[in-house]
Amino acid sequence: IFVDATDAVDELLSDPELAEESQANRERMREADRVHAMPCHAMTLAMVRNAAGLTQVELAKYLNVSQAAVARTEARDKGAGQA
Fold first, then answer.
1. Who wins on pLDDT, 3 or 69?
2. d(CA 17, CA 9)
3. Residues 40-80: pLDDT tens digits?
4. In the chain, N or C: fewer CB atoms in 10 Å?
5. Among positive and negative, which fits the CA dihedral 13, 17, 21, 24?
6. Residue 67 vs residues 47, 50, 51: alpha-carbon distances, Å
7. What's the whole-model pTM score?
8. What's the Cα-to-Cα distance from 83 to each of 5, 35, 76, 77, rounded to whole Å?
């Protein structure tokens, strides 16, 4: 069952204090996503490549980049994941 709560949310956010708090929470959540999620996502290139059973050369050919570019990206991503 879907309930459209748009009007109720709009009414709540008409309160300046609640609107400010909601905006602050959104900004904190965006920052948390940026800080915590990026390294996890960045590490996935090698994991996805391996899961697909591709070599760096095969992936590079598919992406129309050099094998060295794939290797550099995977190395950089691995370093970002350890930060």
1. 69
2. 14
3. 555 578 888 998 999 999 999 999 999 999 999 988 877 66
4. N
5. positive
6. 16, 15, 18
7. 0.47
8. 40, 10, 11, 10
Phi and psi at residue 68, to the nearest 5°: -60, -35
CB 70 within 8 A of CB 63: yes
Q: How many Cβ atoms sit within 10 Å of the Cβ of residue 71? A: 14
To 10 degrees, the CA torsion angle through 44, 49, 50, 51?
80
Q: State how far the alpha carbon of 50 is from the alpha carbons of 22, 42, 54, 80, in Å.
A: 41, 14, 6, 19
pLDDT-based confidence at residue 19 (cuts at 50, 70, 90): very high
